[in-house]
Structures are given as C-alpha cells and as structure tokens.
Amino acid sequence: MKPGKNDKKLEILITGLELEELKKWTDDLPESFSLDRRIEKYAGVRPIGLYRWDVECLLDVLSETVDDEKEYPQKDSPEHLAIKSLYQRLQKEYKRLWRE
After folding, report:
1. CA 21, CA 24: separation in Å to the nearest integer?
2. Which of 2, 11, 20, 75 falls 20 to 30 Å from 88 in CA-CA distance?
3. Residue 88: which region, alpha, beta or left (left: phi > 0; alpha: psi -120 to 50)?
4. Predicted confidence (pLDDT) per residue in 52-62, tens digit
5. What number of CA atoms fall less than 13 Å from residue 13's CA on the CB side?
6. Rounded distance between C-alpha atoms, residue 13 and residue 82, angstroms
7. Is 86 exposed, middle or buried (0-12, 13-18, 19+ CB in 10 A)?
C-alpha cells in the first residue's frame, strides 16, 4: 500500500524497554506491509514514521498483548508497564491525528 498525498504520518520515538517489548511481538503483525521488518530494523535513535494502517495494526496486536496473562503474569513488571505505556501512547496519538 502506498501513502497518498493526504495521508498523515505519525512520527514517534520508541526506545528502551518499550522498543524491546514491541520487537517481541513483530511476528504477530498480520499482513503488515513490511511493518514487522521496519520495527525489527528500528534502533530507536530517530522517530519512526507510521501511517494510519501501521498504527491500527500495532494497536490490534498490542491490545491483545497488554492483557496476555501468559506473557505478562505480573501486571506491575517493568516489561508489562512498558508495553502498556506504548499502547496508551499510540492510542492517544491515533485519536489526535485520525479522529473520525
């Protein structure tokens, strides 16, 4: 999918534990139009550019991830708090840019 001239792009910096946890879930990105490869290569030095469909894909995967009792049995663990924080930041930015 190619972005059109009116497609908005979210520039967001993902670093540290948020990035580490996100990379764990790249295999779960269905039909992600190379988003999985982009995240695997992403080093967190500069903001990553995400289009609406990228953010929607991430939100779908992270919504399942945040509640995964198997992966995150302790809800106060640093890993769970990091992935939850990223999920909330993406939700907030999605609403800000693409309110319907």
Report:
1. 5
2. 2
3. alpha
4. 989 999 999 99
5. 4
6. 14
7. buried
